[in-house]
Amino acid sequence: MLARGDLLEARFPILAKWLLAPTVAKFVIEAPLVARKHRAGNFVIIRINDTGERIPLTVVESDSAGGTITLIVQAVGKTTKALCAMEAGQAIRDVVGPLGNPTPIERVGAVACVGGGVGTAELLPIARALREAGNDVHTIIGARTGELVILEDEMRACSSSVTVTTDDGSYGRRGLVTDALSALLAEHPEITVVYAIGPLVMMKAVTGLVEPLGRKSVVSLNTIMVDGTGMCGGCRVTVNGEMKFACVDGPEFEGSGVDFDELIARNRTYVDLERIADERAACQLTTAQGAAR
Amino acid sequence: MPRQRASEQAPEERNHNFLEVSFGFDEARALVEASRCLECKDPACIKGCPVNINIRGFVERVVEQDYLGAINTIREANALPGICGRVCPQESQCEIMCSLGKKYTPIAIGKLERFLADYEIRHDLFRLPDVIERHDEKVAIVGSGPSGLTCAAELAKRGYGVTIFEALHAPGGVLRYGIPEFRLPRDILDLEIDRVKALGVEIVTNFVVGRTATIDELFGEWGFSSIYLATGAGTPHFMGIPGESLSGVYSANEFLSRVNLMKAYQFPEYDTPIKIGRQVAVIGGGNTAMDAVRTALRLGAETAYLIYRRSRDEMPARHEEIHHAEEEGVQFVLLTNPTRILADDRNWVRGIECQRMALGEPDASGRRKPVPMPGSEFVLEVQTVIEAIGQSPNPIIQATTPGLEVSKRGTVVTDEKKETSRVAIFAGGDLARGGATVILAMRDGKVAAESIAQFLGAKRGAAGNGDAAPEAAPAGV
Known about the structure:
The complex is a heterodimer of chains A (293) and B (477). Chain A is an alpha/beta fold and 293 residues long.
């Protein structure tokens, strides 16, 4: 049994940190309650400090006995940049979870797992679980350029084949993940389900590719979220014509039913304010460094 | 003698800030107001109060200038006076029953309660009550809104160990994320919560019961003997009209959570953003709608419409809040219902198409049913739409707790003692009622605390063969 007293005013210490790529950091965080309950596909909502916003992050792995979870974060805006600048020994103010539905893991035979950018990190626990359930897992990792390719070794450890693609051809196969997926599906007609996690445009393209081939796509939607427990509807998406809340009904859905265009537009809601927050943070950082000198 | 009025921030000033609108009574006004009380033999006001505060008793003590006695009279029945004095709809509860109101205007009971709560803070009069007897059993409370806080306080006063589990990062429920600071200042909320904690209540945040641990795990490995469910009605309804997924459309829950819980009105000092158009439409006629529309003005909207499908008389919001909204310049668009939300070329809201309504026969709720008038469609140019048309309970606990009976509306079914279909599990507040008021949620918390104490006492009696004093045993049979 956990000591309840320890949970009061809980903070979540960072036990270890690595840089996987110039803008991608991996954290091991002490969060015993989340670790105990985590299943592949779950996410957490974190808030780094008292003035912070709440952001959703997928739990990449967990160690139930050690009471830790692993998060992989790409620095794209103010909050993720601030998080990526944190070091072991510092603590995150709030971590809540595990949230969302776990990925239904079944033995279907052969599957493809397609990860775009930091989506590869979110895909890893699912690929592992699919492999453990006895599936033949074929993985495709896509990145803009070679130095942004992450988790290749970890994916190899749980996959029958791994194809790496880069937009600029600096590493692996040149081109988009969909090009590699076309080839993979042609070569392996036994693949019935494709799991895709990455930018919305990528998941839309994967769905558009596999649908006509009679295969199923499963996508994990990255929407704007506030609470992550179903109380605000900020994460709403249209699936098969119905309104769904990604945080409680998802985050995974069959790609064929998802209105991607609507979601892509919705995710742009705060683009200008996000830039203001980011620029202001960068500006303060520069001033502080200047003052230190 | 006329009913005393509390001074307020001027409308043209306050609709640009989040400071409290009403300043409350000063001592002089409180004394005058209390002296109006007729001191009825059989005070009806007490029956009108959902937690039956001894209103005559505390008002008499105000007249005697025994303010400590007065606030402690309130505290016997109500653990959160600073909150209730501010947010209760007194006009339909205690004050509507006031005998003075039959011929004149009723006593300002709410304002007096608030005066005492403020006085208690100003003069640091709060003292912890003595706990007569300690018990070993621990009770878990799910949700730290008004119902959970009240139940926790009552059980702690009875000597039970109490832990509240809260899903968000800060306690208070709707008092924290829903009700804006201009109605309930956060220092008051924090203080009231600190007093509940001072009774020995633990509050664990970031804990989603049903996800982080299930109800059955709370009984099993966590070792709780009884559980009170008070998770509220937090799942927002949407109208189901075209255009609801456009940027610029919010549920009131999201809009108010961003502003109140995340302090988006202080962006970029706080990281959570909010976007507000020059023209804003809020849909609904309840307190949530009033809070949202008044918040929109404070965020800088030039025009804020309140669209409601019935007439002003049917609005469920507190009279004081409707009046405040009107003073602050909210434009009421009554007998009107939205039919669709219109998009610009960037998928942002550019307008809302509405239809005029007429009032027909009374419906099941006793209110006259709004009937659409065909061909009456018109468009309001707005860039933000906020829907405040109601909420239902969050389904996570119901879905993860076998054997818990749930109604078709998603509410947890309880008897009059707040006991659910499962032994040792009690429920109340909006989770059991659907969307209701803060004070009714608190009443449920009180009733549940009494029931839980009885339940645990009975269990102890049954298990304690021989330990109990011999002469006590026959009396209990």
